[in-house]
Amino acid sequence: MLYFYRSQRVNEVWITDETFYIFPSHSEKVIDLLVKYNFHWWVMTRMELAAKHLDSWTERGMALAAFGVESVHEETLKRIDKDINLEMMFDFRRRTKEKKVFTMGAYIIGYEEDTVESILADYQVLEKIDFDSYQFSILTPMPRLPLTEKIESLYGIFDRNHHHYNAYHLVWNHPHISPPMMKFLHRLGQATVNAFRHYASGLVRIIQRRFKEKGLRLLYADILRPFLHSLYYNERSQVFIP
Predict the structure, then answer these.
(1) Which one of 25, 34, 40, 188 has the minimum C-beta count within 10 Å?
(2) Which contiguous run of DSSP H or E holds residue 146?
(3) Is residue 237 part of a domain?
(4) What are 39's strand-pairing partners?
(5) Residue 10 in 3-state DSSP?
(6) Which pTM value belongs to this model?
């Protein structure tokens, strides 16, 4: 598959598997193939794994790391089985800046202990950590999960329309925040903490790294050629790989 992608002049691959490197032997084989075909690659993984293997992965082409931050409160992180803390977040951010890796953190608002004031304070902490991008979600009790049973028994769920179970709506009776206020806080995070200036600084670092690797060739290899190829590529054509 990677050979086919490369033959089609694709040079960026995003591994959207949140369990990447949970099975190291398999993931190492994937990375070896990415190196063999000279890909720049983006990956979704756990922050503690990305931190542990940052040097090795960047040397072998990783350009972007996406991971779950979920909370800036250590008691919450422990409760949801996250092996990270604030100190690790700040250190990981420092190291990814040095390596010129774009960072994308997923963050959840609406834990039962959250208030309007606490979420606004959390946003200030996220600004200080300064990842390049954040994906904000509202805590949602998905069907058949232990969390759902707890929320149902303690607070109740008022919205059974599963079209709203997309992490953008508050569907349960939060003890401190109303649904309209939660939606406002979600949009506020996207508009302020996730502002374009953060994206821009991350993109600049990627360009700086590519320029160091390729010089002016990056203008053709990473910008002009993919654009020209997209003009005539037929994405509807069927492909059969033997």
Answers:
(1) 25
(2) helix 146-154
(3) no
(4) none
(5) coil
(6) 0.88
